[in-house]
Amino acid sequence: MKKLKVLALALICAAFSPVKADEGMWLLQLMKEQNLADRMKAQGLKMDIADIYNPNSVTLKDAVGIFGRGCTGEIISPDGLILTNHHCGYDAIQQHSSVEHDYLTDGFWAKSRSEELPTPGLTFKFVERIVDVTDKVNQDIKDGKVTEINSFGAEYLDKLAADELKNSDLKDKPGISTEALPFYEGNRFYLFFIKTYSDVRMVAAPPSSIGKFGGETDNWMWPRHTGDFSMFRIYADKDGNPAEYSADNVPLKVKKHLAISLKGLQEGDYAMIMGFPGSTSRYLTESEVKMRMEGINTPRIEVREARQNVLRKEMAASDKVRIQYASKFASSSNYWKNSIGMNKAIVDNKVLEAKAEQEAKFAQFAKEQNNADYAKVVSQIDEYVQKATPITKQMIYFSETFRSGIEFGATYVLFNDLKTALQKNKKKDIEKAISSLKEAYADVHNKDYDHEVDRKVAKVLIPLYAKSVPADALPAFYQTIQTKYKGNYDAYIDALYDNSIFSNDKNFNAFISNPTVKAIENDLAVQYSSSKNELSKKLNEKYDAVSGNIDLLHKTYVRGLCEMYAPTPKAPDANFTIRLTYGNVKSYDPKDGIHYKYYTTLKGVMEKEDPNNPEFVVPAKLKELYATKNFGRYALPNGEMPTCFLTTNDITGGNSGSPVLNGNGELIGAAFDGNWESLSGDINFDNNLQRCIAVDIRYVLFIVEKLGGCKNLIDEMTIVE
Predict the structure, then answer these.
(1) Which residue in 468, 656, 658, 680 is the catalytic one?
(2) Taking the model in full, what pTM does it have?
(3) Among this protein's residues, is 656 annotated catalytic?
(4) Which residue from 238, 245, 247 is spatially nearest to 199, judged by alpha carbons?
(5) What whole-number distance in Å separates Cα of residue 593 and Cα of residue 585?
(6) Low-confidence residues of the chain, pLDDT below 50?
(7) Catalytic one among 62, 228, 417, 686?
(8) CA 372 from chain center: how many Å?
(9) Side-chain-facing half-sphere of 203: CA atoms under 13 Å
(10) DSSP type of residue 114
(11) CA of 614: how far to CAs of 86, 177, 250, 449, 681, in Å?
């Protein structure tokens, strides 16, 4: 067990005035300390930053939260109406869809509160409070209280968060939880108090032909014409407290909602985004970037592409399968294409060369500072990379194949529990184990699972995995394929999917009516799952053996970089905590002779229309609205209907759905994507190429009112003409 080391120097990352505005996912609690206000105002901010974030009052921060499991949403009415992206609400839209009620295809529009649909499992989270606990952590480090398994003291931080909640005035408040996290690779620590609402209902979603217009083809691309939005509402008990779904719950009266601007935007206008960016890796070394390309992105691309080829064909052949797998396919495809674009952009944007140049400067800085730790840290990271790349690649192949790819499998632990109970002949334990198995079986054969589709996926991915990894990285069931099935993958997979206890209702019911140890031991699905579990443990052990003190090395390197770049502050990597980025509305020139203007219009939707391509179908009603120019107050001065626009804001995954705000803090759009040319931005920000793609709020309201017929929703918003 390693102990966290005490910081020898103060964190210089957070003490100086910035030079460049666009790069940086800035912590709200450090805006004053990092002197961001002057630069933000120079770019067009008109409001006081104390109205953006102030721990002692209600601010813009209180209108933004975490939507679902990995997106951002913002409150756009006093009654808890949420705006987020269509692709963020996609799981919920798909969950409510069926062949009879195909909201994915047709859209969904609640004309009254009574029509809003409860969505089990969907949550919305607000950040109630942010507390700096760096001094406490460092004191505990100094006192030797931290003896956890990694340099950030994960178990220690969990306990710290729990203890702080117990000692807080918020301890007995409904829905409150805490999380303590490291920043700057463990050089600084913050505690977040989170309030979670669990009754979130679906209110409005355009048809996918608007919300996903352009599909895979346009994903990560500009120009874009996607109406990527959906709306939900937070419900609470009569006192405004978080509560599980109840018919008695009422719309939440929020303490802050965003005003919406219809004033339009021009090139150069100020734009800021508040949200929850998921993950960036701006402090990687050159060797670590190569590992990201070869050890993570490449295997992810290969496995996901193989699986998506199967799903694409099956979804095209059946509406039932299309609805079942719509969300799964979209989730897989998104970062499949992102990984392709990132590898390309790393090369095109000379990221490796930039990292090498930075390391050369750092070596000189370490020499000038006569700092032995800084002088050797990059070479130590390189040694780790050399050892870690092969095992990382194997782990990604394994995860993409057997966790994200193939869905079928028995729950080995539960079968083992039943086996033990049967051997001991304990009736109560047997009944308990069977009950757990029934739940696990229902989880596998859920409404969004098709056994035959998954069989076809397995027939592609199981052979692919064997070709992609060394023999010692194969689960033991591959030996069964070679010996019992003479290397015939299809024969093994058919036996697995036809004959196993978990294969179908007939097999499962026959087993639970007469469970035996022999049946468990001979079952292919149990053997399959058991061998996967064993290999997973083996791979993790291998990685742990080579990772050594990599966390502490990163901590040292980041601290040194912050010192080297002083007085320019550096923002910490994204970790799905609330951040602010600021920039401007701006066009760009991706290549010689090519200029992309900063906005698109509905005209482009009509130009892209292709009724023979499901990615570019245009709804008849939208074509009618376009033909009659029935755009209402949402049109541009020249009469055209705006759809999307570009800003220079620094965003990444998790920012999906984030509000794009003007200099007055008014909502002008919702961020939903980045541009293809800058997909290396999570690793190295390019101030010339980096763009955030947002759906224009005027297009959102136009679709809601004119196509969805939901004037009721427009009327509850605060709109600035």
Answers:
(1) 656
(2) 0.92
(3) yes
(4) 245
(5) 21
(6) 1-12, 14-21, 148-149, 151
(7) 228
(8) 38
(9) 27
(10) G
(11) 17, 43, 39, 23, 30
